[in-house]
Amino acid sequence: MVTLISIELYKIFRKWRSYIGFIAITLLILLVETAMYFEGQGFLNAQLRGLDAFVFSGNLLNGYLIAYFVMGALVIHIPFLITLVAGDLLAGEATAGTYRMLITRPISRFKLVTAKFLSGLIYTLLLIVWLAALSLGLGLFLFGSGELIVFQNSFIIFAKDDIIWRFILAYGFATLSMSVVASLAFLFSSLVENAIGPIITTMAIVIVFVILSTINIDFFRDLRPYLFTTYMMDWRLFFDSPLDTGEIAKAVLFLSAHITGLYLLTFYLFKRKDVLS
Amino acid sequence: MENEKIIEIKGLSKKFKSLTAVDNLNLNVLKGDVFGFLGPNGAGKSTTIRMMLTLIKPNSGSIKLFGESLNGNRNKLLGKIGAIVEKPDLYGYLSAYKNLEILGKISGCDVSQKRIMEILELVGLSARAKSKVKTFSHGMKQRLGIAQALLHDPELIILDEPTTGLDPQGMKEIRELILNLSREKKKTIFLSSHILHEVELVANRMIIINKGKTVIEGYVDELLKSSTIKVTVEVDNGEKMRSLITGSGWGDKLESSGEQKFVFLIDKNEIPLLVKYLVDCGVNLQAVIPQRSLEEYFLNITEKN
Q: Which among A233, B19, B79, B224 is least buried, having the fewest CB atoms inside 10 angstroms?
């Protein structure tokens, strides 16, 4: 299995499309951090407006704040970058005609589909790790460290030594939520013989679900807990005090169940699939 | 064991919605055979091969390879088979060497540099080992396809239309390779084709299928020994030729004629007689080209039946 996964990863990283996500994230982070470098204080002042009664000291415009802001701004868009690769994992083989070559090898379809699925998840993880390393690393380099002030339901200030673990868990959670998107694209990838279909379909589903999540009508509000997109921004729960462990556990279970279910469905369909390409 | 069955197919059928692609097909391939699997386009050849390689599932029937059922022994049996199914599509963004290395690793076979270069040498691609496959011509891709089929030294080689799109030289090279694999390496070869002539040159046994059903099966020599073929005769004096054959029995066997080209539909054994008759009559022959098309052979058989 390790050999198969390493082969799949090799194939992924020999394709130009696999680097689009990394390049896009790099460019966006560079732009955001440059803008923050010049306009960050104004942004921070705007956020703190109405809190004139408080006296803030220390370096509030720091790398942690920048990384928190970058994550909030980018996480919702990363699914589109992930589908470029995940949607191509199986459909790409069909398009290239290499399905035939792969499936006639003496390995089971289970191993083949599992290796591809895990490679897709590893790619997702690497994309988030890149996002984390770049936004935190560059942020801390340019803006230094300090306390993290977050603006959610209320203002919360985290001490310097109480921040890193929150980021690690938040990035871990983001990886989980992005893995649902990767799994969905992977499922669609097993159904068709061209990667464009899975990419567009997955993106359409994410967009529709996000829109449904924001419409304030009772019917859609009732629907919200069942949409995986509802939980995509729950990485913010790790920047709450005290932690709402119940909500976190619920989100983790819901997303994990989605990933498992989508993988099993893909395997079931792939095992029964007649390869006609 | 000479009569060991390498492929044993019984009552194999496959339907795609209302289309029956393969209909109750039976065939046996013996160890050491170069077995021709013939049929016109759409006859069900590729569907049968895909079922033999577990790419698609049959609706009914059984497939035994090396005496064991394909069901439940898939991985073990596929390890003994090398195949090209239709086009030899490989990873265009990788080199020939890397393609073989990857496919070898997946097959769990020896992927040492020596082995890969040996196989590339065999198919005449060692000089292009490091070139990306997307830069290859169709013929080179076809040869690389054969290389990947041979990489793990399989006992049975399944080649689905391996000469499609090749120039005459490329076709000849593939034929020589097949004969070499059969005679020198003692491999069993299952060769699918829609060109009867191609099979005739390399196979010892063959089956012809049409609309998924067996039309005829047997030893190539026996099946083709007295069949009608098309012979094109080119002469320098068309008028003389026309007058000669009109007054002879050959006129009845003339299928069509041009100014200097005359096409006869005659028995294979009659070719020397026709040539002798024309030479004796003083006709200056420029060419005598025998062509046996699957369609004509097929029609001939169905007429006889």
A: B19
